[in-house]
Amino acid sequence: LKEENASLRSKINKLQIFSETQADKVRKLEKKLEENKIKEEKEAQDLEAMVQHVEQNLQLMTKRAVKAETSATKLKQENALLQVQLENYKAENEALRLGQRASLAAVRHNADAAVRNLLAVVANSRSSIQQLISGAESLQLVADLLKSIDRISETSEDGQ
After folding, report:
1. At 100, is the pLDDT very low, low, confident or very high (cuts 50, 70, 90)?
2. Which residue ranges run through the membrane (predicted)?
3. Checking CA distances to 90, which of 25, 75, 141, 149 falls within 20 to 30 Å?
């Protein structure tokens, strides 16, 4: 009975030691489980914050994309308007060139007419100048004759 009692005590001691070991393991596992829960909660919060940050970035990028699209549309419209203006200016320039050519042709025609008129005036002037010179020579001859007549008459009056 003593042996059986000692054997049972020994078993009880072993079981108590085993039980304490198991209790320590359970406490350590519970502590580790609690640490893991805290860590997971922190990671979940971090993930939630990251998700919110990503959502905010997506909203900002969406706003920027909409703004860029609006700006691109406005720029396309402005470009189309400028293309129309450019075509209008090109047409206007061509019209002005044609008008300038026509004006240049008219100026040339007028200049040719003016040259012809000037040549006619020069020719008439030469003729008139020659007539004036001839008339002046005739007047000089008449004046010389009159002087001669005056001298002749003075000489005849003196001699009479």
Report:
1. confident
2. none
3. 75
